[in-house]
Amino acid sequence: MNSTVRYASRPPTTMIVTPDRALSPVYTATQEGWIMATKASEHDTADPVEGKAHEAMNRAAQTAGKAEEYARQHASHADERVREVAAHGRQRADDLLERVTGHVREKPLLSIGIAFVAGVLYSSLRRRR
Fold it and tell me: Which of 41, 21, 39, 17 is nearest to 29 (CA)?
């Protein structure tokens, strides 16, 4: 019978101190203090528990791996969509710039008048604050 011995000043009050329970340590009083002897049957009981814990960890790791893959795929799709929207926005801005440039070239005096009125309105709005 394998056993582990550990000395303590006194046995813990919350532990069950009965030798008939396989998972309970047995305490014996000696001159050095209390001795805790762990029965070998604890190791036999711990092996299936350890196996189940290992299986649970493997399942958790697999689930985490699937979640990571899912997140990476959706992040990739989101990145593609952002790039598409940005390219579309740049194209619209370029089109608007071409239209404004063409209008200014066709009617330069009207463009200067519109710019002057816009500047006056902006200036008056900034002063009111």
Answer: 17
